[in-house]
Q: What sequence folds into this?
């Protein structure tokens, strides 16, 4: 009997999980999925966890339960520390694994652009831990504000500055504004409207949602303005310390809360030459996602810089669909003889962003047409519910959103902080 080829997949996000699912129960492969978390989660909805509109379990699901029934797939909890290509080994924080084929699908991490102060004191929005930390900060500071007599300090505590006007920044600023309008003064009657501070959305580019059409950008800007979000463009955050956000135009914003959604970069691992990495620290690959200079190492999704797709000469956008499609394409190729492999070509399915209740934007592929308002909001809901990993999560999320739509309220605003084990 022929030995099975060992495939090690590092990262169980959109790309890694799609790859594993497509190759599940294929007898010639034995697959080990490695992730530093024991669960898969849905990043586009992190901002709702961070503001108490969803519970973490609604957007996450244990890997071991997902992998039930996949007879050739095993899960390993661990973090990749080093790749040893000449020995076909990966070194984890809890052991070593051999591989015949290695697939890197580790996604991205927050990019602070080398600013240590911003890294130390700002609030990132990349993981469930980040989202829960932000939720704790928001509601702890709201409660603290009810006990502060100094109005200036109270306003500083409740002013939120969001760096990065991409989908995450737009969605977060919109939902914070709706919280302010519909929830906070009911929950915190000690606070007046003036006490609640301001919501700032900053970006170094000249528009919000830079990747979307001009119509989508203008509609979003108009709706954010009506929500009393102060949008500041062509301006970067240069520093954050002592409760002051310093900007590139030499102005400052007094705030204790800088939420960092301004950039990401791929993860870098020991064992790859510096020349293997391209823009954004992504591993350079050919049209089959094979990492340059290697015969059996592939990179997928946010970890991959594939420049052979003529429509995306600078690499594909770091969003869910390219990752999912790359994972599926590589898995399908591994079922075929090498001469039958198909190069990856991204199918753009359009872009979506939500601004608030009944307010969203959708661009079709290549910006051929544009949808806004309630219809775009319904489409956004459908797409995001379908993107969740199992039926129970889909049903729970739909129920939560219907409740918010009717009552303009939610009830996951608990401050939950784990205690250290003694």
A:
């Amino acid at each position: 009997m022929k030995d099975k080829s060992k495939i090690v997949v590092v990262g169980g996000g959109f790309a890694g999980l799609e790859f594993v699912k497509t190759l599940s129960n294929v007898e010639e492969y034995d697959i080990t999925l490695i992730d530093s978390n024991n669960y898969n989660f849905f990043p586009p909805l992190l901002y709702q966890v961070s503001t108490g509109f969803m519970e973490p379990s609604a957007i996450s699901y244990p890997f071991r339960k997902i992998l039930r029934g996949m007879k050739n797939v095993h899960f390993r909890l661990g973090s990749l520390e080093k790749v040893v290509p000449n020995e076909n080994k990966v070194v984890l924080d809890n052991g070593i694994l051999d591989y015949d084929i290695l697939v890197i699908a580790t996604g991205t991490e927050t990019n602070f652009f080398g600013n240590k102060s911003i890294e130390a004191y700002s609030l990132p929005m990349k993981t469930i831990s980040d989202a829960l930390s932000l939720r704790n900060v928001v509601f702890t500071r709201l409660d603290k504000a009810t006990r502060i007599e100094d109005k200036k300090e109270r306003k500083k505590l409740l002013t939120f500055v969001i760096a990065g006007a991409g989908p995450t920044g737009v969605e977060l600023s919109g939902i914070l504004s709706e919280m302010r309008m519909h929830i906070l003064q009911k929950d915190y009657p000690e606070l007046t409207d003036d006490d609640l501070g301001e919501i700032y959305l900053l970006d170094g580019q000249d528009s919000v949602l830079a990747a979307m059409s001009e119509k989508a950008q203008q509609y979003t800007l108009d709706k954010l303005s009506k929500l009393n979000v102060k949008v500041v463009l062509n301006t970067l955050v240069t520093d954050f310390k002592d409760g002051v956000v310093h900007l590139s135009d030499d102005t400052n914003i007094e705030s204790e809360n800088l939420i960092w959604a301004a950039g990401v970069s791929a993860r870098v691992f020991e064992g790859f030459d510096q020349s293997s990495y391209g823009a954004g620290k992504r591993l350079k690959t050919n049209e089959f996602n094979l990492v340059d200079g290697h015969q059996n190492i592939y990179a997928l999704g946010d970890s991959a810089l594939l420049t052979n797709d003529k429509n995306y000469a600078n690499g594909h956008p770091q969003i869910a669909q390219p990752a999912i499609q790359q994972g599926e394409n590589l898995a399908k190729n591994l079922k075929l003889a090498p001469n039958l492999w198909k190069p990856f070509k991204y199918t753009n399915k359009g872009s979506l962003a939500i601004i608030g209740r009944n307010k969203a934007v959708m661009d079709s592929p290549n910006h051929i047409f544009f949808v806004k308002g309630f219809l775009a909001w319904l489409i956004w809901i459908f797409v995001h519910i379908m993107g969740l990993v199992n039926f129970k999560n889909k049903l729970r999320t739909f129920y939560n959103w219907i409740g918010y739509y009717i009552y303009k309220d939610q009830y996951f605003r608990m401050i939950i902080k784990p205690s250290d084990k003694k």
